[in-house]
Amino acid sequence: MNTPGITLLGLGPGDPRLLTLEAWQALNEASEIYLRTRQHPTVAGFPVALAIHSFDDLYERSESFAVVYEQITTQVLELGRRPQGVIYAVPGHPFVAEATGPEIARRARQEGIPLRVIEGLSFVEPALTALGLDPFPHTALADALELAAAHVPPFPPDVPALIGQLYSRRVAADVKLTLSEVYPDEHPVKLLHAAGTPEALVESLSLYEIDRSPHIGLLTALYVPPLGAGTSFEAFQEIIAHLRAPNGCPWDCEQTHLSLRPYLLEEAYEVLAALDSGDSQALREEFGDLLLQIVLHAQIASEEGEFRMADVLSGIHEKIVRRHPHVFGDVTVDGVGRVLQNWEKLKAEEREAKGKAEASLLDSVPLALPALIQAIEYQKRAARVGFDWREVTGVLDKICEEAGEVRTANDDQRAAELGDLLFAVVNLARWYKVDAESALRESNLRFRRRFSYIEKTARAQGRELSAMSLEEMDALWDEAKREE
User: Fold this and answer.
1) Bridge partners of 161?
2) The whole model's pTM is what?
3) Mean pLDDT highest for which of 92-106, 373-387, 431-445?
4) CATH code for the domain of 377
5) Domain range holding 176?
């Protein structure tokens, strides 16, 4: 006997003995059943008289799971409109790691088709039993297929994660690549095979080995232990909030956006110094210091009711997606030049939508920027709309012209002419695709290194720099250059 409408039935993790009493009664009363897939051990324990249909053929004919699930959903809804209705059964629970169940339920309710849900034990409980773990207080659940298509894991690394549907070695390989963006290759993990069946197996291995397991199959899941305390953005936010709490640090509690301003600038410059030095460990540390300033400002803003960190993240997320239609949309661009032109167009549209249309393309370049960086930004933006030299020879000629004007300028004009000369030199760096700020910082470092050599040599000779002639110091300068 079948029930009118749609019955969504969970088959449990794989052992027929784990079917619920309600599910077993429904199977015994039914004359036929439709399965998302026959590839599930519970099917072997079905009543003998039950007519079994499956949608396995759709997997073989379709190019993607999304297409398969849409076809299954459409067909189950059609079957549910019959007078006798339909029983549609899926592995595990109809709403856990199951794409078709929730969508069928949503559309059935929308159409007024009677809906009954017979729950089943999901893969989660047997997996936790096999691991001997309690999922509280924090455990992330993830789908292997979505994880395989991602670039970084979507869950914080300081909590354990249970990843379902790791059904093939190819999927395992893709999941491994994604997880490796955060976890070290040697991170200990566990593969769970056929949890909830007599064939249950737990493999302990390193992350880099997961796609080598010969046991991977349709009932395989992956358990990833936490990376360690303090490895997530959320944990860092909690620390900063604690610093600002009544029982936190008195100094941190007193800070405001304005009082922290010099520290933000200082940390940004220390990041640049680490970049210039090429010291990756120093760079890692300086990034942390800069991040501290950003999160601290966000915490203060949250306390003042201005905005929250979630607003910061969602805002930049939307902006990046909006300004990259050639990546996240259907816009086609040919080369970096077109990307930049499109970028400026999109920014102008955003400003207009906010009622902040600019009188000039240069209006959004911050006036507080250091002069060198400001010059670069002005030149870049003007060039994006075609205001630029046709060839680099024009830039070189301009430098010669400005140098000549410096030479002939009077005292009142000299500062302006020197500024024009510096501006022209920055433009040349842009033409040669050299970052002027970095180039000048490297020159500063070279000067410091060579001058330090002169000082060191003078001290070794027991002499004062002020007592040395320019020719002597020039000779030592040349020695420093040769040693480099």
Assistant:
1) 140, 224
2) 0.76
3) 92-106
4) 1.10.287.1080
5) 125-224
Question: What does the DSSP assignment read for 124-175?
Answer: HHHHHHHHT----S--EEEEHHHHHH-SS-SS-TTS-EEEE---SHHHHHHH
What's the mean pLDDT in 350-377?
75
What is the mean predicted confidence (pLDDT) over 368-396? Answer: 85
Using CB atoms within 10 Å of the CB of residue 127, give its burial: 0 to 12 exposed, 13 to 18 middle, 19+ buried.
buried
Residues 6+ apart with CB under 8 A from 224: 160, 161, 162, 163, 179, 183, 187, 189, 207
Higher pLDDT, 295 or 65: 295
Helices 414-431 and 436-460 sit at what angle, rounded to 10 degrees?
110
Q: Rounded to an integer, what distance in angstroms lies between the CA atom of residue 354 and that of residue 361?
A: 16
DSSP string across 458-469: HHHTT--GGGS-
Instruction: Tell which of 66, 97, 121 closes a domain.
Output: 121
- Indicate the pLDDT class of residue 358, thresholds 50, 70 and 90: low
Among 224, 248, 276, which residue terminates a domain?
224
Residues 414 and 458 in one domain: no
pLDDT value, residue 2: 62
